[in-house]
Amino acid sequence: MTSKLNPEPSETARKRPKRGRYLFITAVLVALGGYFLFGGDDSEGVNRGTTVQATRGTLEITVVEGGSVEAKESQELKSEVQGQTKILSIVEEGYTVTAQDVAEGKLLVELDSKELLDRLTEQELQYQNALASFTEAREEHGIQINQNQSDVKAAELESKFALMDLKKFLGEDVAAEIAAQVDENFYASQSEQAAGSEEEVSPIAEGEDAQAVTRDPETGRIHMESASARDVEVDFSKYLNRDSLGDGEARQQLLKLDSDVDLAQEDVGLAESKLEGTRRLFKKDFVTKIELENDELALKRKAINKESAETDIDLYVKYEFPKQAEKLLSDYEESLRKLQRARKLAISKMAQAEAKLNSAEARYELQSRKREELKEQIVKCEIRATKPGLVVYGEGNRSYYRNNDRIEEGATIRERQVIITIPDTTQMTVDVKVHESYVKRVNKGQRARVRVDAFPDIILEGEVFKIGVLPDSQNRWMNPDLKVYSTTILIEGQHEWLKPGMSAEGEIIIETLTDVVMVPLQAISQEKGETVVYLADRGMERRVVETGSFNTSFIEIKSGLEGGETVALRAPSTSGGRADDNQDADEDTASEDTSGDEAA
After folding, report:
1. CA 206 – CA 484 distance, rounded (Å)
2. Residue 200 β-bridge partners
């Protein structure tokens, strides 16, 4: 049952020394009374000392451990600045953060941000350079796209015009037939190249825009590129007739040459007829010899013109026609190669532009992310109130930390270190360390009593809230041989005077024995492997008893003693011996034995 709160702890503190003096005087009087009461039996030389009666009643088996008061839930304000930094200013410990402070965003801790501001200035320059490079790369990428489109379009038009020139010279049908041969060899060449490199080739277009899809057998990557034409050997002589050539320039030229030969033949025939008539007239002296010679000369001239026309047609058929046709076909083939080169060059330049753009974008994003991180770090140098409560400095103020780890202005703190803890004082707990020999008997939900050192007359009620699974790590480093488990006792009710960090004592009730015989622990002795008590009302009779559970003051007597019997608190000592020393050893042995029984 929880005692009422003493409104004036200082008065309680003043009363405690007086009560201690009363207890001391009482103990002295009892000791003196026992001496005079039992010390008269000098014949036997036995000193019975202080006695007490064995009582029957309820015995609480408890575990009492010291600890400290803590809040069940707390808000931890940690340093989120990377690396180490210093505290420029911090609110005083014990300050109560109000709801108004939260609304106004009161500054609780200010960390040194000078180095971060200098780094932000440098980072801003790098960010601007990266932004300029990224903008330039992005614009160049767009320009390269337009340039590639222009180059490929120009190559396509050149190929188209070359094919039109071929059609204009040879005619539509002949040019289409020869272009089909070029296209056939075009794909055949690509198939041979792909077969040599074990790649798959698939034409995806025809004509001057023909392309091929190839797959790399090792990487499996697909490449789309224009197929390259190879030279085509064409026999143009079979097309050298009026019906095959159609309406091309070659047919027109051939018709003109044929017409020139025909006209020259007719001129020769007319000249021969005229010369024959002139000869007959000359025989009859109707014309002069000069006129006869002129007609003979004209016939020779006409014959020469005929031979020239025939030579022109022979030269055209043998040389000029195939030369012109080959040149136009070669121009067409070269235009296809240019188109292929333009497309490949466009792919290459596009890849370079994209690589440059991706690299510039990656650098820009990296510098931008670093810039934003520095800005966030600078903002995190100011820790503001987000929750009302009591300000408690972080764990750096505990005694086992070095002085340079204390939370104070000018102290150096590291990332993730707790600077301030704002506990929720509406629910308080006591954290105690339970020895491993008792922890198996401590269970969640067991009732407990709490005494705070600052208010020893006030008993607070609570229950076990949490038990550590593993031994306490901090205590393990300090004393490896001592295994204790952190156990949390939840205090019932709200107490404004209860502050985090107060020293307290937690008493956990692990068992309640009813209607049992009990005596103080000091009455138990260990002699020759037996647990004994001495009955003072029977002349210090030695009696063997069986003990059971015990707490810090009393121990259960299962058999060998009845309630109401008087026992000595110490084993009897003779005037001539040093039984006190033996008795001390016996008590230590008894304590060890009973502890072992309890742990078992």
Report:
1. 86
2. 215
Q: What per-residue confidence (pLDDT) applies to 32?
A: 38
Of the given ranges (93-102, 147-156, 179-188, 269-278), which has the lowest mean pLDDT? 179-188
Distance from C-alpha of 331 to C-alpha of 335, rounded to nearest angstrom = 6
How many CB atoms sit inside 10 A of residue 308's CB?
Answer: 13
What is the CA angle 527-530-533, rounded to 5? 75
DSSP string spanning 131-191? HHHHHHHHHHHHHHHHHHHHHHHHHHHHHHHHHHHHHHHH-HHHHHHHHHHHHHHHHHHHH
Ranges of each domain in the chain = 9-73+424-599, 74-112+381-423, 133-371
- Statement: residue 462 has pLDDT above 80: yes
- CATH class for the domain made up of 74-112+381-423: mainly beta
> Please, what's the b/e burial string for 61-98 (b: 16 or more CB within 10 A of its CB; e: otherwise)?
bbbebebebbbbebbebbbebeeebebeebbeeebebe
pLDDT by residue (tens digit) across 209-225?
444 444 454 444 434 44
Mean per-residue pLDDT for 135-139? Answer: 96
Q: pLDDT band for position 79 (50/70/90)?
A: very high
CATH pick for 9-73+424-599 out of 3.20.20.150, 3.40.50.800, 3.40.630.30, 2.40.30.170: 2.40.30.170
Does residue 346 have a pLDDT over 80?
Answer: yes
The string of DSSP letters for 518-541 reads: EEEGGG-EEETTEEEEEEGGGTSE
Residue 399 clears pLDDT 60, i.e. is over it: no
Q: How many residues does the chain have?
A: 600
